[in-house]
Amino acid sequence: MAVEWERVGEPGFSRIVEALVHRMYAASATVEAVNGRGGDAGVDIKATSGSRVRIFQLKYYLDGFPTASFKGRRKAITKSFTRAVMSQQPWEWVLVVPSTLTPSERTFVNSLGTALKVRVRVRVWDRAKLDGLMAANADLEASFTRDQLFQAAQVYGQERALLMDGVRDVSARVAALGRQVDGLDDHWTVDFARQGETVVHMLRGKHPRAQEVSPVEITLTGSGPLAPELAQAVRRSLGFGLPEEVVLPRGALESMTVTGPEWLSGVHRDVEVRWRPAEGDGLAETDVEVVFLDGQQVTASYPGSLGHMGRGSIGRSVNVELVGGSMQLLVPDSAGAPASLQFTFSLEGLEPAAALRLLRIHQRIQAGGAFEIRTRTGVVGSGDLPPKPESARREVAEVCGYIEGLEAVQRHCEQYFPVPDELTSVDRIALRMARLLLEGQCVISPFLPKVGVTLNGQDSPVVRALLSGEPHAMQAGCEEFAIMLAGRRLDLGPVLCFHPRAAADGEEAQRALATLEIGRGDGQEITMRPEDGERFRLLLQHAATGDVPVPVPLGLRGFPEPR
User: Fold this and answer.
1) DSSP bridge partners of 200
2) Residue 155's pLDDT is what?
3) How far apart are CA 203 and CA 264, in angstroms?
4) 3-class DSSP state of 358
5) Using an 8 Å Cβ cutoff, are 239 and 334 in contact?
6) CA pair distance 356, 344, nearest whole angstrom
7) Is 187 helix (H, G, I), strand (E, B) or coil?
């Protein structure tokens, strides 16, 4: 039923046009309907897409705007156009009217831009255009013609057939249809859903023995080889009984044949097929251990929970859930066929200790060898893994090293937080330095090419030697040494900063000597630099023994050792 524009009134006309503009442009533009009570500046609806602006001016002129009568209408249109162009600089201006324009009226609208001497695209949505847009958007047309249909429906007592009570009627109609479907068979029913123009059918047994009492066989005929990823999904689900939903899209199947009760049987084409695992009764035992072996010797053991055990046409499957990760084990029935183990994990949101546990499991898997998944009642899965390439194992070992350093720093500072999403090169260096310092080692800091020293005014041969410009051994204490990581300040404690050959900057040294001569050296600042562009050494004060400490290398791959 088409919209009767004469009956909708100006407010109804505005609502319909607003809905149409949103439907046509909201996907690619920002659409705004303007409330004219505050002064609309010649704009009823505005659609903005990047630098392009479309202005829609709505005029509920059922009789058009001829020159012989309604003379004020053309003046109103011109005024709206002028205000819109001056205030918005639109790329396009559209006049929307619920009438069919005469040639004279259309010429008048098309000449608006020329008369104002502006470059703007001018268009008209008249009655024919509006009727066409409503027909192309049948759901909008239906929603705005419900009152017209309701008047007719009342005559025949069909209010519910038209869903005049909204979603409550939808629920009642769907529930009633479901009861009709449930009555088709004692053992099976079909649940259904609407997704756009597609109706989805979901076969469901009414009781656990439905397949035994009333067998249903589904035969799928492919239209060609499946894509590799889809073929693997089918193998995992049907071959090993993994609890995965598998989707065979349209085009992958030539047909689906259902054999069973008469009302259900038939051949279906152009279908999408999904299958998912049936809900089980739950596992009797869920606590497991993932055990790595060297011969009969257990080299590592990690606790987990049993998420799934399944069986398919070619083998069985075991899923183990871990904090932050999961394992998927596929064990073929064929003698001699190797089992496969897939381990997936994420460090997001985990503190270092939990992250290290996952990484060490990963390292065990990469190293290869025998493993078992054990419950209290016995082994539910096992296999023998091949070793991964050394390059892959070295990469994981480096990540472990960074997180081990973070765990040591957090434990020392008693500040616990998740592993940062990203570690910059500066973070990596700082963490390695911090870990070595906490182990009592001396390190060379690449971040300390110089240090500032403030004199206290006391004169001595030692001070004079430092200010001579010649390299001398130098040591300074710092009561708080901290690194910044993930927006946190992690204080490692007091450190010694030293170098066997450091010299003061010449000009600063000369000024400091001059102030000492006149007894005003207190507060004088000088800069000390190691000889030959080297960097200062660091050592936690409690680790100092009196012997000259020897720096240890940072040992970061891809980063040159500081000197």
Assistant:
1) 193
2) 47
3) 9
4) helix
5) no
6) 14
7) coil
Paired tokens of 71? 């003379």
- Cβ–Cβ < 8 Å for 495, 433: no
Q: Which two tokens stand for residue 270?
A: 């152009």
Tell me which residue of 135, 46, 58, 136 sits closest to 92, measured CA to CA: 46
Min mean pLDDT across 62-66, 369-373, 507-511 is at 507-511
Do residues 342 and 356 make contact, with C-beta atoms less than 8 angstroms apart? Answer: no
DSSP 8-state symbol, 551: B
Q: How far apart are CA 378 and CA 400, in angstroms?
A: 32
Burial (0-12, 13-18, 19+ Cβ within 10 Å), 481: buried
Residues in the chain: 563
- Radius of gyration, alpha carbons of the chain: 40
Closest among 291, 302, 264, 80 to 181, alpha carbons compared = 264
Specify the amino acid at residue 180: Q
Q: Which range among 94-98, 402-406, 555-559 shows the weakest confidence by mean pLDDT? A: 555-559
Q: Give the per-residue SS3 of 402-426.
A: HHHHHHHHHHHHCCCCCCCCCCCHH
**What is the Cα–Cα distance from 185 to 261, expressed in whole angstroms?**
8
C-alpha 362, offset from chain centre: 24
Dist. CA 239–CA 242, nearest whole Å: 8
∠ Cα 32 139 46 (to 5°)? 15
Beta bridge partners of 320: 306, 327
Residue ranges in 193-337 assigned as alpha helix (H): 210-213, 228-234, 240
CA dist 474 and 490 (Å) reads 26
Cβ-count burial of 561 within 10 angstroms (0-12 exposed, 13-18 middle, 19+ buried)? exposed
Q: Is the dihedral of CA 284, 289, 291, 297 positive or negative?
A: negative
Q: Which residue has the tokens 């009984």?
A: 241
Instruction: State the Cα–Cα distance between residues 343 and 441, nearest whole angstrom.
Output: 36
What tokens were used for 35? 């409330």
Per-residue pLDDT, 158: 55
User: What is the C-alpha separation between 175 and 113, in angstroms, rounded?
Assistant: 58
Lowest mean pLDDT among 15-29, 137-151, 190-204: 137-151
* Strand duo 253-259 + 217-222: pairing: antiparallel
Q: Which amino acid is at 453?
A: V
Terminal CA-to-CA distance of the chain, rounded, Å? 86
Identity at 290, one-letter amino acid code? V
